[in-house]
TrEMBL record:
Gene: Zw10
GO cellular component term, pick one: spindle
Gene3D superfamilies: 1.10.357.150
Domain Centromere/kinetochore protein zw10 C-terminal per the UniProt entry, residue ranges: 391-521
GO BP field: cell division; endoplasmic reticulum to Golgi vesicle-mediated transport; mitotic spindle assembly checkpoint signaling; protein transport
Residue span, Centromere/kinetochore protein zw10 middle domain: 97-334
UniProt-recorded name of the protein: Centromere/kinetochore protein zw10 homolog
């Protein structure tokens, strides 16, 4: 019995193993049969243009093949051939679907060379087929079957991506970029056409509302004729395909589309004036409605997008845009010509805004208290009143561009007073940036002209003083009108004043140094004013004197009516003083002056004394200049020294001693004893009278 039992167990084990082998072979044969059946049914469905069924059969065949390939120990040679066949049939299927897709959505586009211009964009068209041809009616809507088949094969995303890029490039972006472009639809028996027509635009940029309406129309057409079709999903994906299809396209193009809308539409709609900010709520509402419509068509998911966030953040964008516009306008003014000037007078008023009173509160209480004190006490005020122009800028000329720059600063600060706190702060610091930009840009941009042209150097000097003059009170004028953060002492421009004054002075002083250098260079050709009895030497000295006077007259003309009178007189006085000082030094250094030399030197000096004051012409009216010409000794430090030198050149020994008057006379006030002795030795021969005279000079 035991032996029979062992034999039975062995037989059972063998039969069991054989059954397992047969079951496995059977399952493999079954899968091969399923693969074969799927391919046969696929071919039948493809011939009947039942694309969804054909795609599903291909997926079944792929599933069977994967199962076969996963079986270990049954690496059949036939599997490789089956895989190749499946790939061939899949590509064949995709080719047929591609052909159908091209019939469903037909693009008619201009040649690639012209695609960017408005004229060529007008010729772009999209044809969407609406009714299937008769032989296809059995297969259901062509759009549904083609798109479903693509989805089953996993190729839908690729097709939609290409379609989305064409849609962006040839329809959506042109509608945003060109205000004159209008979408135009035409429905025929079996096709729906989306094309453009061009109208005369009323503005350079379309309003966001108009752009949103155009884009909404395009998406409505796509939703109705291409994406809104009832589709059956494969078993593994039970989601509604309409949502998936529209969302799929939306996910692919929305980010790029919203960025383009922001950069080419919403940016241009940001108001440039704070008074128009309230009207911008219409744009925000239109953006909300636009997004809501796209969500209803399933192009967008439920979250708020960057487009709406941008529109709602209008205050920040307004401030940024305003600040940018202000800086650009300021820089354009700074790089414009300096020589176009306007006249500034103490009683002249630049077109500046009238500011309201600081407001109620502590400021008014303080005012009332001071009035009560004033009424109850004795008037200790000095009867002498200051002139109303005491703190005014003196009459001068400034560049018209700088006057406009100051107007821009005032208008921007006025705009800041009506803005939100954040915008107010940004605008205030933009105005500060204007002046800091001036400090850096103008001296660099106009460097060459400021060095070469004395008139421009004078105008630049005035410009800097004019700006500094306004900066003293600019912050104070707006102090109680700006946001509280700035009211606590931050709203000031006074710290910029010394820098601007220094900038103007340095430029003008550099020009003065250039002019001084030219004067000294011309006088260096006078041959030290020695040996004037030599005709050639005399001509050289005379020419040098004439050149200096000519230079001073020319400067007097170019600075006339430009510099303030006091600055003009100081500048001309300094330059004339340089010439006289140099002449005095040269003549005083001579060791021998003959009688003829003395006469000729006197003649040259007389030319300077007679014509020197005539270079003082600060005003265009000649009769008004006489006053300043008579005041030459005030502005020319060495004037009296020069006149005393002329007296010495014509005087005898006794007259020189009288002028010295024991160190108390007018000569002693201008020359040292050593200088006078040196001149006496040069002018007079060595005699007892000269020795006696020299003894009295001490």
């Amino acid at each position: 019995v035991q032996r029979d039992l062992n034999v039975a167990v062995a037989e059972f084990t063998e039969l069991k193993q054989q059954l397992e082998r047969d079951t496995l072979v059977l399952s493999i044969l079954k899968k091969l049969q399923e693969f074969d059946t799927a391919l046969k049914e696929y071919n039948t469905a493809l011939l009947e243009k039942k694309y969804v069924a054909a795609a599903q059969q291909l997926e079944k065949a792929r599933s069977s093949l994967k199962m076969l390939e996963s079986r270990r120990g049954f690496e059949l040679k036939i599997l490789k051939a089956l895989g190749t066949e499946l790939t061939v049939q899949t590509q064949n299927m995709l080719y047929h679907l591609g052909e159908e897709w091209q019939k469903l959505a037909v693009w008619k586009l201009p040649s690639s060379k012209e695609s960017s211009s408005l004229e060529s964009v007008v010729h772009s068209e999209l044809h969407l087929r609406t009714v299937p041809s008769k032989e296809e009616e059995i297969a259901g809507p062509p759009v549904a079957s083609v798109l479903q088949a693509f989805a089953v094969l996993g190729e839908l995303r690729t097709k939609l991506k290409i379609f989305g890029q064409l849609l962006l490039k040839h329809i959506l972006k042109p509608l945003i970029s060109y205000p004159s472009l209008q979408p135009f639809t035409e429905e025929q028996s079996d096709v729906f056409i989306l094309r453009f027509k061009s109208e005369e635009p009323s503005l350079d940029h379309s309003s966001p509302m108009e752009v949103f309406d155009k884009i909404k129309l395009v998406f409505e057409v796509l939703h109705k004729y291409l994406l809104n079709v009832p589709l059956e999903q494969p078993a593994e994906d039970k989601k509604d395909c309409r949502v998936k299809l529209a969302e799929l396209l939306g996910d692919m193009i929305w980010e790029e589309l919203s960025d383009y809308l922001i950069q080419n539409c919403l940016v241009n709609s940001i108001p440039t004036n704070s008074s128009k900010l309230e009207q911008y709520i219409e744009v925000i509402k239109a953006t909300e409605e636009f997004e809501k419509a796209l969500k209803n068509m399933q192009f967008l998911k439920g979250d708020t997008t960057d487009l709406l966030k941008y529109a709602r953040n209008v205050n920040s964008h307004f401030a940024n845009k305003k600040c940018q516009d202000v800086i650009v306008a300021a820089r354009n003014l700074m790089t414009s010509e300096i020589h176009n000037t306007i006249k500034i007078m103490p009683d002249s008023c630049v077109a500046l805004p009238r500011l309201p009173n600081p407001g109620a509160g502590d400021h008014l209480k303080t005012q009332k208290t001071s009035e009560l004190l004033h009424n109850d006490t004795v008037n200790l005020e000095n009867e002498t009143k200051l002139s109303q122009h005491t703190f005014s800028l003196p009459t001068c000329r400034v560049s018209s561009s700088v006057a406009k720059l100051m107007e821009l600063a005032y208008q921007t600060l006025l705009e800041a007073t009506a803005s939100t706190d954040q915008c107010c702060i940004q605008l205030f610091y933009s105005v500060r940036n204007i002046f800091q930009l001036f400090y850096d840009v103008v001296p660099t941009y106009h460097k060459e002209n400021l060095q070469k042209l004395p008139q421009l150097a004078a105008i630049h000097h005035n410009n800097c003083m004019y700006i500094a003059h306004h900066l003293l009170t600019l912050g104070h004028q707006f102090r109680y009108r700006l946001t509280n953060i700035l009211c606590d002492g931050a709203a000031t421009f006074v710290d910029l004043v010394p820098g601007f004054r220094r900038l103007g002075m340095e430029c003008f002083l550099a020009q003065m140094r250039v002019q001084k250098g030219e004067i000294l260079e011309r006088l260096s050709s006078a041959r030290n004013f020695s040996n004037m009895d030599d005709e050639e030497n005399y001509r050289a000295a005379n020419k040098a004197i004439r050149q200096v006077l000519h230079q001073l007259k020319r400067l007097g003309k170019v600075w006339q009516d430009v510099l303030p009178v006091n600055v003009y007189c100081k500048a001309m006085g300094t330059l004339l003083n340089t010439a006289l000082s140099e002449i005095v030094t040269r003549i005083a250094a001579l060791e021998d002056i003959s009688a003829e030399d003395a006469d000729r030197l006197y003649s040259l000096c007389r030319t300077m004394v007679e014509e020197g004051p005539r270079v003082f012409t600060p005003l265009p009216e000649d009769d008004k200049n006489k006053k300043y010409q008579e005041e030459v000794p005030v502005y020319v430090q060495k004037w009296m020294t020069f006149k005393e030198l002329m007296i010495i050149l014509q005087a005898n020994l006794q007259e020189i001693v009288d002028q010295w008057a024991d160190g108390k006379g007018p000569l002693a006030a201008e020359f040292s004893a050593a200088e006078v002795k040196s001149l006496i030795r040069a002018l007079f021969q060595n005699t007892e009278r000269r020795a006696a005279a020299l003894a009295k000079i001490k």
